[in-house]
């Protein structure tokens, strides 16, 4: 499902509403809500909205368990860390207990960090881990999580989590594989700004070429995928 919103605030509110609705349903049905957050800069505004007076009382945060769809292989205190970004914009403002947060252990060698994270996920979510919600961003090159164009991880069929050196960003990344993302109950892409318009068009309108446009790999097996776009990011798919 693709929804286009007239501005970023309307887009964020729609995404926050989905988050709250899914959290309430999961906590009512199963007593907990498991969510994997996206990295990068786009989610910061969503985190700030969830932590605002408009939303912070809507969710029983003590029953929400936070994971990361990908992580940069840097110390968790590093400005580039997705964990650090979430801590600053969501966990600290909402006073989330550390026992509800599962960061990647980047003190381990990167391959070990990926295996360790996969074991953490399998231990918490079972042998076929199904996140209630996975939030994703979209790079200008149509990557998502750390599934970058022309990388071997795009073809990973067995592992749920992998680490790899990403030449484009000159660092190791630990990432959910498409297999894990596509096992989710719900996947929500949060994409806004004119810079994303071309990548959005490639992913949603061009022929299936996931090697070029890795976000095309995301098609949940039994779940749903929502694309939350503002008009700027949607302008090439809206153009007649
Ligand atoms: C990361 C993200 C990555 C991000 C896109 C978009 O670790 O960087 O997981 O996939 O979502 O690169 O990033 P922006 O939101 O900063 O444009």
Please describe the topology of this protein:
Layout: E1 2-5, H1 8-30, E2 33-37, H2 42-50, E3 64-68, E4 70-72, H3 82-91, H4 110-125, E5 133-136, E6 161-166, E7 171-176, H5 178-181, E8 186-191, H6 197-205, E9 224-230, H7 231-238
Parallel strand pairs: 1-9, 2-3, 2-5, 5-8, 8-9
Antiparallel strand pairs: 4-7, 6-7
Helix pairs in contact: 1-2, 2-3, 6-7
The structure holds 6-phosphogluconic acid (6PG).
Output the structural class. alpha/beta
Shape: globular
The neighbouring-strand order within the major sheet is 1-9-8-5-2-3
Determine the number of helices (DSSP H or I, runs of at least 4 residues).
7
Low-confidence stretches: none
- Characterize the main sheet: 6 strands, parallel
- State the separation between the terminal residues, measured CA to CA: 19 Å
Evaluate the radius of gyration: 17 Å
3D architecture notes:
The chain is an alpha/beta fold and 240 residues long. Helices cover 33% and strands 19% of the residues. The protein has seven helices and nine strands. The protein has helices spanning 8-30, 42-50, 82-91, 110-125, 178-181, 197-205, 231-238; strands spanning 2-5, 33-37, 64-68, 70-72, 133-136, 161-166, 171-176, 186-191, 224-230. The strands form two sheets. The protein has a six-stranded parallel sheet. It has a three-stranded antiparallel sheet with strand order 4-7-6. It starts with a strand and ends with a helix.
